[in-house]
Design goal:
The complex is a heterodimer of chains A (306) and B (548). Chain A is an all-alpha fold and 306 residues long. Helices cover 76% and strands 0% of the residues of chain A. Chain A has two domains: 38 residues, no CATH class; 192 residues, MetI-like fold (Orthogonal Bundle), CATH 1.10.3720.10. Chain A has twelve helices and no strands. In chain A, helix 4 packs parallel to helix 12 and helix 6 packs parallel to helix 10. Chain B is α+β, with helices and mostly antiparallel strands and 548 residues long. Chain B has 17 helices and 18 strands. A six-stranded mixed sheet of chain B has the order 12-16-11-15-13-14, sandwiched between helices. A four-stranded mixed sheet of chain B has the order 1-10-9-8. In chain B, strands 4-5-7-6 form a four-stranded antiparallel sheet, covered by helices on one side. In chain B, helix 10 runs antiparallel to helix 12 and helix 16 runs antiparallel to helix 17. The chains are: A mainly alpha (306), B alpha+beta (548). The interface between A and B is large, with 72 and 70 residues.
Chain lengths: 306, 548
């Protein structure tokens, strides 16, 4: 297993290099630069600023300089947030995204798994239809619609919870963003689990287990649920990264200082280093999450062990 | 699962209620407006929403409004703007201007101290200004010091920073040499980049000197805690030179870039002041909040630029035809709900300056349209041979798009011109404008200080902002004269004549002036609308005696 993990990590290096190179090339191909603004800079001031950030060098030279920094773990200064380095921005924003994202994923599992199991076991009953309807609603209503609605209800109308702000991670500040972020995942998880559990329930080994008189509870938990979880685990790897990184709408609506907004604002403002830094971070997270998902799958299903 | 459904369903119903309330002008039941002051009022804690996270809290690097809001509370310059937007002495108790207007001498208050209790000296001012123009600082604000002798040469790396035209002749006297008489220089001093910074702290901590726990400042408040893109907490500075006049104990800034989210935060009672609200919510908000909506003229103009060096806009007749054919009143009242003001000139009225209105402002719409059609024909266009041109504009919200669609429809109906909308991503648009790629383009300008010069400079030959390449010798002469004269009245006359020249040449198409718009709780006192839209927290206070 360790050899497998080591090999996968080695393969990740060229993958990341490709990501870095592509992102770098695309960013620098976009018209406009980080110091373009409505108030045009006097040429000599612009030149001085560009020299300070090495933007006066050729693009290949900038690329090599950037790679050198990345190898040393230095993602460079932010052009946009002049008081901070990209490392500072990530160090500040990532814990926020991790908190919101992991709580949302936890909540989604907590609700989605029972919902999916219920729908599969009570197939074609009102339970199943209700669960499917909820799932469909969760999937089709995007977070940038649900989040403002939650704010309208719980913050503006009922005044139970604040309409936004991180509030140093206080529970009352976390509730709305976590709920809003988890809703689509509740839906995905419920639907995915329902489908895979239904498949498993019709397999010969489940029928055999039931035929030999094994208690239903054991059949379900030991023989049905474990293989039924496999597609869910495969989904959870990238989905967890998605929930951590994809909360840009949530960050905007709730005014949370996570890295998603750095990424989007960085792209608009041609803040090359910030966009690159967050891209690399996302790349690393996806590689790690996929690896983790593979390891968990292997633990669940001996056939998938390397 | 059931609570989730109920939440969602209730929220959907509520939002439908809110929306129906909006469209039918009846008070929606969903909103519950804060009527009573929260605990923050008793604690003298003001909570302000700002449009974006400040990109820096370093005065020497600050070039944007959100940073300016916070820095204005943390630091104080030689002069400042009072609640009405008038210049008053601040760190400098008085100043003198030499007869040739090239030398300004400032006397600093002797009792002013940094928040670490060290005295503020003239050397801190000199250090701050040299630092801004030093290429090693890489400050985009460097050009704010352009009127000071040698500033641009230093910024360009051709002279060392100590050659800047600013000296500390003693601990409390700053002498500034200017390149040319600059009547508006006192206003320029209200720019963050000309505020003093504590030399001893900046030298010790480098770029990290603005971090919470390290920053030393001289304003009414000091930095307690700050997160990028998150809340910024300030507390009262007990060592501020005028601390007795400061009534607030705490100020928190919440960056919320989405205007709808900002309005929600306000309606939820989370903030006391917002820096805006969505145009489309104006009816709902004005019903709900009444006088809590505050509008005031703001020093900014939206216009269309035209490239005058090549067809079709090398024709003055065509430029004037397009200028006359749009109905600004209809646009600002019907479409923009009076949140903007119709513009007929480049410079908004400000600080005693009245822009010269073109003659056609008095005409009826029919008269204007008739004259526009005449000029359109004179430029060689007709129904058979209509003007066909792209109007390039940067991506922004749906409001801009709606305005532009209305304007192109006016040109279509009143002239028969076929103006197509060409949307560009913001940086792409900026670059194309800089390279004079566009024939007809969206342009907006916010004045750096309340003097017409900050606008009139846009159309000078060689100005990097003169994207349409306007070139008129008489205009150049008038601006040169206005800049050089020490006589305020003569200068105003020169500015007015220069504006009249722009109007006569239809150098651009004025569309509307900005207004600042805020939501402000009734218990926030001391707020006055002003043309610069700067509102220092030191001039505000919270009162439980609410008067609407």
């Amino acid at each position: 297993m360790l050899g497998f993990i080591g090999k996968r990590l080695l393969v990740a290096i060229p993958t990341l290099l490709v990501i870095i190179t592509l992102a770098f090339a695309l960013l620098h191909a976009a018209p406009g630069g980080p110091f373009d603004s409505d108030k045009v800079l006097v040429p000599e001031i612009r030149a001085a600023i560009e020299a300070r950030y090495h933007l006066d060098e050729s693009v290949p030279m900038q690329y090599l300089r950037y790679l050198g920094g990345v190898v040393r773990g230095d993602f460079g200064p932010s052009f946009q947030y002049q008081d901070s380095s990209v490392n500072d921005l990530i160090a500040q924003g990532l814990p926020i995204d991790l908190t919101i994202g992991l709580l949302a994923m936890g909540l989604a599992l907590l609700i989605g798994v029972p919902l999916g199991v219920l729908a599969a076991l009570r197939r074609n009953t009102v339970w199943d239809r209700a669960a499917s309807a909820i799932a469909l609603l969760g999937i089709s209503v995007p977070t940038y619609v649900t989040a403002p609605l939650l704010v309208l209800l719980f913050a503006v109308s009922l005044r139970w919870l604040p309409a936004g702000d991180w509030g140093e991670g206080a529970l009352r500040n976390l509730v709305l963003p976590v709920v809003a972020l988890s809703l689509p995942y509740v839906a995905y998880i419920a639907r995915l689990l329902r489908a895979s559990l239904l498949d498993v329930l019709h397999t010969p080994w489940v029928r055999t287990a039931r035929a030999k008189g094994m208690p239903w509870r054991t059949v379900l938990l030991r023989h049905a649920l474990r293989p039924a979880l496999l597609p869910l685990v495969a989904f959870l790897g990238p989905a967890t990264v998605g929930v951590i990184t994809g909360s840009i709408a949530i960050e905007t609506v709730f005014g949370l200082p996570g890295i998603g907004r750095f990424f989007v604002d960085g792209a608009f403002n041609r803040d090359y280093t910030v966009v690159m830094g967050v891209t690399i971070l996302y790349g690393v997270l996806i590689v790690l999450a996929n690896l983790l998902a593979d390891v968990v799958q292997a633990l669940l299903d001996p056939r998938m062990r390397p | 699962m059931i609570p989730a459904v109920r939440v969602l369903c209730s929220a959907l119903v509520l939002s439908a209620l809110a929306l129906s309330g909006c469209s039918h002008s009846s008070a929606p039941a969903a909103l519950n407006v804060v009527e009573a002051p929260g605990p923050n009022v008793a604690e003298a804690h003001l909570r302000r929403q700002i449009d974006q996270a400040p990109r820096t809290l370093d005065p020497g690097l600050s070039v944007e409004v959100p940073a300016q809001r916070v820095i204005d509370d943390l630091f104080e310059g030689l002069v400042r703007l009072d609640p009405a937007g008038q210049l008053i002495p601040a760190l400098a108790s008085r100043w003198e201007i030499s007869a040739d207007q090239l030398q300004w001498t400032f006397q600093l208050r002797t009792d002013a101290r940094w928040s670490d209790d060290s005295p503020i000296t003239a050397h801190d001012v000199v250090f701050a200004w040299r630092r801004v123009v030093d290429p090693a600082t890489a400050s985009q604000a460097a050009q704010m010091l352009a009127p000071v002798r040698n500033a641009l040469q230093i910024a360009g790396g051709r002279l060392p920073p100590d050659q800047l035209g600013v000296q500390a002749t003693d601990a409390h006297t700053v002498v500034v040499q200017l390149v040319a008489p600059t009547g508006w220089f006192a206003y320029q001093l209200t720019n963050n980049s000309l505020y003093p910074v504590p030399e001893h702290v900046v030298r010790q901590h480098g770029a990290g000197w603005v971090k919470p726990g390290v920053m030393v400042s001289n304003g009414a408040f000091v930095l307690e805690e700050a997160r990028i893109n998150g809340a910024i907490h300030l507390v009262r500075n007990t060592r501020y030179r005028d601390a007795a006049a400061v009534k607030l104990q705490r100020v928190t800034y919440y960056p919320v870039s989405d205007r709808a989210a900002a309005a929600s935060r306000y309606l939820a009672g989370d903030v006391d002041v917002t820096d805006g609200f969505p145009i489309e919510d104006i009816e709902l908000l004005s019903q709900q909040l009444g006088s809590q909506l505050k509008l005031a003229p703001y020093l900014g103009t939206v216009m269309f630029g035209m490239n005058q060096t090549r067809p079709p806009f090398n024709s003055a007749a065509l430029r004037m035809a397009l200028t006359l054919a749009i109905d600004r009143d209809v646009l600002t009242t019907k479409l923009l709900h009076d949140l903007y003001l119709p513009a007929y000139t480049l410079v908004p009225a400000n600080g005693g300056y009245e822009p010269p209105l073109p003659e056609w402002v008095q005409w009826t719409a029919d008269q204007r349209h008739a004259r526009a059609r005449q000029l359109y024909a004179q430029a060689g266009y007709s129904a058979a041979h209509p003007l066909q041109v792209d109007l390039s504009y940067p991506t922004s919200g749906p409001d801009t798009r709606r305005v532009l669609e209305a304007l192109t429809a006016m040109w279509q109906v009143n002239l028969g011109a076929e103006v197509r909308l060409a949307n560009e991503e913001w940086r792409v648009h900026q670059q194309n404008r800089l390279l004079s790629v566009h024939a007809l383009f969206w342009n907006a300008w916010i004045g750096d200080y309340p003097d017409p010069q900050t606008f009139l400079d846009l159309y000078r030959v060689g100005s990097p902002q003169n994207h349409g390449k306007y070139n008129n010798a008489n205009y150049e002469r008038l601006i040169a004269f206005g800049s050089a004269t020490g006589d305020a009245q003569q200068r105003t006359q020169a500015w007015q004549q220069a504006e009249s020249q722009l109007n006569a040449d239809a150098a651009f198409i004025p569309v509307y002036y900005y207004q600042s718009r805020h939501l402000i709780r009734p218990w926030v006192q001391g707020w006055q609308g002003n043309i610069t839209d700067r509102h220092l927290s030191r001039d505000l206070w919270l009162s439980t005696q609410v008067s609407q």
